[in-house]
Structure formats: C-alpha cells, structure tokens
Write a structure and sequence with these properties.
single chain; alpha+beta; rod-shaped
Length: 148
C-alpha cells in the first residue's frame, strides 16, 4: 500500500520540536533584553557618578564642602550629593570626598581624596589641586528598594 503524506504522530512530533525551539529562542531573546536593560542602567549610574565626582572635585577646590541636586528631566528621580571632610592636619589641605548618586531602586557611592596645594586665602580661588582616587564604586540598596 502506498502512503501520500505524513501521519498524525509525525506532524505532532514536528510541531513539538518547533515549539521547543521557539521557546528556547524566545527565552534567549528575553534574557538578552533584560541584560541590555541592566547594562544600560549600570552605564547611566556610572555616567552620573563620574559627573558628580567631577563636580564635587571642582566645588571642593572652590571651598564648597557639601552640595547636591537633581539630574533634571532626562533622569527623573535621580539625585546627587557630596560632602568633604578634612582628611589630614589643617595645614595639609587634604579632603576626603564622599559622592552619592541615588536612584529609584538603588544607590551608587564613591570616596576619593582631593588635595589643594594651598588654602583659599593664598591662591586665587584655591584651584591648585591633585586628584587621588581612593576606593571604588559601591552599590547599596536605597531605602525601600532593591539593588540591581
């Protein structure tokens, strides 16, 4: 006897194989999209942290030992702040600066040292400095949020 076509079992097996392959491909695609979103958020935090470090260094050199603000409409809900404390004797002008970027779900922090060549009274604006990075970035959960 001659057969023309596929049996029902063969068609169901082919559909099951195609369904499994589609599931694996969609899962890989979803995972890559979540990874891209996480990396984009991480890159945004790093960019905002670097902007805050740069601003804090300049402000400390100008004599402003604390400050903060928001990043504007491009990053709603994200704020920045810094505070500096003398890290050595009074005549050395070494400051430990703590920088913090806070978002809706987490917080990035960095600590570094700023060295002023002389006091504000001895130089015009006190803009002589040396930048010495200390420590690194750390991520801590914001109050009520989870770190990513």
């Amino acid at each position: 006897m001659r057969r023309n076509g596929f049996t029902l079992v063969e068609v169901l097996a082919a559909v099951a194989i195609l369904g499994t392959a589609m599931f694996v491909l969609l899962d890989a695609h979803y995972t890559s999209m979540r990874l891209q979103e996480t990396m984009q958020l991480s890159a945004s935090y790093r960019q905002m942290l670097e902007m805050t470090v740069n601003r804090a260094e300049v402000e400390v050199l100008r004599g402003e030992l604390a400050g903060g603000g928001e990043f504007g409409p491009r990053f709603p809900g994200f704020t920045w702040s810094y505070d500096a404390v003398p890290a050595a004797k009074e005549d050395i002008y070494l400051y430990e600066v703590n920088v913090r970027v806070t978002g809706p779900e987490s917080e990035e922090m960095r600590t570094f040292l700023v060295y002023k060549i002389s006091s504000d009274e001895e130089t015009e604006g006190g803009l002589g400095s040396g930048f010495m990075g200390v420590g690194g970035a750390s991520r801590a959960p914001a109050p009520g949020g989870a770190a990513r």
